[in-house]
Amino acid sequence: MLCRHLITAAFALAVPAVASAQSFGVAARAGTLGFGGEAAYQISDNFAVRAGVGTYPFSITGELTDGRYEITPPSSLLNAGVDFYPGWLDFRIGAGMLMIGDETQFDAQYTGGTVVIDGQEYTDEEAGTVRGELDHGAAAPYANIGLGRHTGGGIGIFADFGAAFLGEQNVTLTATGPAAQNAEFQDRLDAEREDIETEVRKYVKVLPIISVGIRFGF
Questions:
Q1: Are 32 and 210 in contact (CB under 8 A)?
Q2: Separation CA 51–CA 96 (nearest Å)
Q3: Which of 29-43, 64-78, 91-105 has the lowest average pLDDT?
Q4: How far apart are CA 162 and CA 150, in angstroms?
Q5: Which has more pLDDT, 115 or 34?
Q6: How does pLDDT run across 50-85, given as a tens digit for each residue?
Q7: Three-state DSSP class for 8?
Q8: DSSP 77-108
């Protein structure tokens, strides 16, 4: 009986201590994960759960020596994970999953007279616009370090630095010109796609995470 009373008393003292550590925060952020917002819930002095969403409300366009290109990033990136605060000011260590909404798209319109596809020259009119899609996969684990607590009363700033580790990525290439109806052209386009896919899988393995924001805690 005495043991039961002691355990009950210990829980009664512990629960208010944990509850007092609980707090909630919302934030606006910008960085390599896009422009968006986050929400965090602190479950103890050392741990918090955090989730956010970002979007890229723009595409990247530019000039090539023989044409123009346009890159459209994924429409949305969602992150969800856990932050650990070891007790050094507001330094934290985090890990979780990044969910990638869709593919990165690439359009190239050549205007230099000819375009070389797998060693064969085609005119601009024959090839038309060459379109590519880079499928990053649906999810990628991430790890990060950061400064600034997302929860707690008032307004504050924070920063995140880390990386998401991408899995096997797939490339798709299509063309809009009349040559796209030709079997030989499609074979060469597919060979070009395989070369690009090999390079992407070799070098594009990590998505850097750099993010800064302003939070409001409750």
A1: yes
A2: 9
A3: 64-78
A4: 17
A5: 34
A6: 999 999 988 888 876 677 888 898 889 999 999 999
A7: helix
A8: EEEEEEEE--SSTTEEEEEEEEEE-S-EEEEE
Q: Which two tokens stand for residue 159?
A: 């920063």
Mean pLDDT of the chain: 85
The answer to whether the CB of 105 falls within 8 A of the CB of 122 is no
Residue 48 in contact with residue 42, Cβ under 8 Å? yes
For residue 144, which of 191, 215, 210 has the smallest C-alpha distance? 210
Give me the pLDDT at residue 83, please.
96
CA distance 176 to 189: 12
pTM confidence score:
0.77
Residue found by looking up tokens 């070098």 in the block: 203
Exposed e or buried b for every residue in 172-189, given b needs 16+ CB within 10 A? ebebebebeeeeebeebb
